[in-house]
Amino acid sequence: MKRIAIALLLLTGCPPTTPSGTTQAQALGDNTCQEVAWSCVGMKPGTEEAWGCTEGTANERARYEASCTADKHGRFALSPCPRDFVVGGCTLARESTCVTTWLREPASMADVTKECQRQGALVVTP
Q1: What pLDDT digit, counting tens, does each position of 39-76 carry?
Q2: Which helix (H) or strand (E) holds 123?
């Protein structure tokens, strides 16, 4: 009985796996992604002004790196998003992917909450 209890305690610390055996992504207690590996700062077209930033786990790196500059007029980096002027964000943790999109001022927390609800995402505060 003691061995079963120890085994159950050890298993509770393991992330769930999908049927294919890949790790299931989970948001941390503060609703951010675990092990952020990249970021894409989205720029307003024709300006040096950022609208926000998206960051995520390593398995989404290639897809976002390829689309960051073209789709978001962005700047790709191998680090988390800067938190300067961030109001809040939305985290999606599904299957083996975890991605957080941070919105900057002049967006309000009400804008962030509305966007997260639209996406079915978790609300994150900086």
Answers
A1: 999 888 888 888 899 999 998 898 889 888 876 688 99
A2: strand 122-124
Cα Rg of the chain (Å, integer): 17
CA distances from 5 to 14, 17, 26, 117 (A): 15, 21, 24, 39
* 99 three-class SS: strand
Average pLDDT, the chain: 79
Cβ(1)–Cβ(42) below 8 Å: no
DSSP 34-71: SS--EEEEEE-TTSS-EEEEEEE-GGGHHHHHHHHHHH
Query: Structure tokens of 35?
Result: 């092990």
Q: Enumerate the β-bridge partners of residue 100.
A: 55, 91
For residue 22, CA distances in Å to 38, 47, 59, 98, 121 come to: 20, 40, 11, 13, 21
The confidence band for 84, taking pLDDT boundaries of 50, 70 and 90, is confident
